[in-house]
Design goal:
five-stranded mixed β-sheet, 12 strands, 4 helices, globular, mainly beta, 18% strand, 328 residues
Length: 328
C-alpha cells in the first residue's frame, strides 16, 4: 500500500490548479463523509497561515494565468478554485467518517440510485423524464431538469453565454409550495474556453451538469454560512489571471462544487473519486475580473450573500452550463 504521507503530498500539489491562482495550506479529509449539520466547522481558524500542526508544505501547482505556468508552491483546483489537502486522519478538526455510498446533502437522492454527488449529471439523459410534481427550473429543459434531485429546495443556476464563452450569470432559486422563486441575477465568470461534458485536468473548461453544494470555506472568517465552513490560511491565491488581473482575494470565500470530490470534506480536500485526470477543485469563489480555469466566480458581496443563503437542510445544488445545454 502506498505511503499515505507521500500520497498526501502528491495530492496537495496539484490542488490549486485551475480556477485562480495558488493555494497553500490544507484542511482535513474524512473517510467518506456526507453532509453535516448546519454550522459545523472543519477546524479552527489559523491566522498564521499554512503552518498548522499536521499540515505539510504544498507542492508546485498550476497558476491561473494565461501561460499556465506552475508557481513555486501551492495546490491545484484542476479547473476550479480548490486545492487538494489530503490531511492525514486524526488532524485538527477532522470530521467523523460516514459510510461510503451514502447520498450526501445535495446529492442525487432517489432519482439517481447509488449517486453520491461525486460527479453529478454531466451529459444527456434522454431516457429521463421530469417527475410528476417536480417543478422545472426556468431555462431548464426536460433532460437537465430530470437531473435535479427531487429533494433540492435551493438551486444555483449558472447560465453561460455560449459553449465557448467565459461569461455567465448566476441566479439562486428557492423552491416553495408554488414552484421555484428566483433571486437576483449576478454577473459571473466561468472557464476561459467555456464548457464541456467531459471535463479534463487543464482543459480550461467548466464541467456542465448538476452537482451538490455541501461544503464551504475561505481565507476570511465565516460570514454566517450555514454550510460547514473551513476558515483556513490555505485559501491563498497569487499571481495574475488570464487578462492580467491580480488573483489576490479570489479564495476569500468559496463554495465547493461536488464535481469529482468527496462531499462532506473541506474544499481543500484532494480526494478525486473519478481520478486525477478528470480534474477537480471546482469552486464558486470571489470574482477576480476575468475567466477562470474551471470554477465559477461572482463578486465578493454576492459570495457573502450566497454563503448566508445556502442551507444544507434545503439540499442545495448547482446547475451549470451554457444556455443551450441547460435547455436540453
Amino acid at each position: 500500500m502506498p505511503d499515505r504521507l507521500a500520497l498526501t503530498r502528491r495530492a496537495t500539489v496539484a490542488a490549486l490548479l485551475l480556477c485562480t491562482g495558488v493555494l497553500t495550506g490544507y484542511g482535513t479529509s474524512t473517510a467518506g463523509g456526507a453532509g453535516t449539520a448546519a454550522g459545523t466547522a472543519y477546524g479552527t481558524p489559523d491566522p498564521s497561515g499554512p503552518a498548522r500542526a499536521g499540515d505539510r508544505p504544498a507542492p508546485a501547482a498550476e497558476a491561473d494565468s494565461p501561460g499556465g505556468a506552475r508557481p513555486a508552491a501551492g495546490p491545484d483546483p484542476s479547473s476550479g478554485g480548490g486545492a487538494g489537502t489530503g490531511s492525514t486522519p486524526g488532524g485538527p478538526g477532522q470530521r467523523a467518517a460516514e459510510p461510503r455510498g451514502a447520498a450526501p446533502a445535495g446529492g442525487f437522492g432517489a432519482e439517481h440510485p447509488g449517486g453520491t454527488g461525486h460527479s453529478g449529471y454531466s451529459g444527456p439523459a434522454a431516457a429521463l423524464a421530469v417527475p410528476v410534481g417536480h417543478p422545472r427550473l426556468p431555462g431548464l429543459g426536460p433532460e437537465t431538469s430530470a437531473a435535479v434531485p427531487r429533494n433540492a429546495r435551493q438551486a444555483v443556476v449558472v447560465t453561460g453565454e455560449g459553449p465557448d464563452s467565459p461569461h455567465s450569470a448566476v441566479v439562486l432559486y428557492e423552491r416553495t409550495a408554488t414552484g421555484w422563486t428566483a433571486g437576483p441575477r449576478w454577473p459571473a465568470h466561468n472557464a476561459l474556453r467555456g464548457w464541456t461534458d467531459d471535463h479534463r485536468l487543464d482543459d480550461l473548461r467548466s464541467p456542465r451538469g448538476v452537482f451538490g453544494l455541501t461544503d464551504a470555506g475561505g481565507l476570511r472568517p465565516d460570514p454566517g454560512a450555514k454550510l460547514p465552513y473551513d476558515h483556513s490560511g490555505g485559501f491563498v491565491a497569487t499571481g495574475l489571471g488570464f487578462e492580467g488581473e491580480p488573483l489576490t482575494g479570489s479564495f476569500d470565500y468559496v463554495v465547493a462544487i461536488n464535481y469529482n470530490r468527496e462531499p462532506g470534506t473541506s474544499p481543500l480536500d484532494w480526494t478525486r473519486p473519478l481520478g486525477e485526470e478528470k480534474g477537480g477543485g471546482i469552486w464558486i469563489h470571489v470574482d477576480h475580473g476575468g475567466p477562470t480555469h474551471g470554477c465559477v466566480s461572482i463578486a465578493e458581496r454576492h459570495m457573502r450573500e450566497l454563503l448566508r443563503a445556502l442551507d444544507p437542510e434545503r439540499h442545495p445544488v448547482v446547475v451549470m452550463g451554457d444556455a443551450d445545454f441547460l435547455a436540453r
